[in-house]
Amino acid sequence: MALTHALEQILYMISSSLYLPVLLIVTLLAAYSVYTCGRLAQEWLERRKAGSRTVRLFNLDLAVTLGRQQRANAAPLDVELELLLQTHEHRQLVKLDQIRFVIKLGPALGLMGTLIPMGISLAALAQGNIPSMASSMVTAFTATVTGLGCGVITYLVALVREQWLRADFAAMRHQAELAASRTLDAPDLTIEEDGHALSETL
User: Fold this and answer.
1) Where are the bilayer-spanning segments (predicted)?
2) Scanning 49, 86, 135, 202, which has its CA 20 to 30 A from the CA of 6?
């Protein structure tokens, strides 16, 4: 019995020590969710005016990659284009994974923010401290609502961003294939033009 009581005290101390960090992180997640919604609205307006910024940056890097192909000892064009595509796709997926992480973390921390104050409120109830118990219960339910709200908001943001990224990835692959076909056809066109000019000279 003494060992059980000691373990219970240790677990209670661990749970109580996590109370403030959990509330702090849930608050930060709520602020991050609002920030994410603002960034989503900003990107939506930017896409309506100037198109996708991701595709524009890819086109700039694509022009640099095509320019490097004119140098000696350059890597094969298909290898360079595939590396460029994977680099840009990975960069965007990392940003999307940050939002997906909040989708999982928000409800989990909200649940922790519920259970920890409930344990504190039960301890206060055992001591007859009703106001402290009521305050802990209010905090518990508030943390639950906030955590679930963060999960729902970031889930909706992730859905919209996934649709945008699918369209961006398709556009980037189209641009890469188009650039590759033009680059590979360019020598053939040069040869045909030279041959046509030579026949006219003869």
Assistant:
1) 18-38, 101-126, 138-160
2) 135
Helix or strand (DSSP H, E) at 186: helix 130-201
Query: pLDDT digits over 41-83, tens only?
Result: 999 999 999 888 889 998 898 888 887 776 655 667 778 888 8
Closest CA to 154 of 105, 109, 190: 105
Give counts: helices (H), strands (E), the chain: 5, 0
Contacts of residue 109, defined as CB under 8 A and 6 or more positions apart, other chains included, come to 22, 25, 26, 29, 143, 147
> Token pair of 172, please?
């980037």
Question: What is the C-alpha separation between 147 and 107, in angstroms, rounded?
Answer: 5
What is the spatial distance between Cα 71 and Cα 62, in angstroms, rounded to a whole number? 15
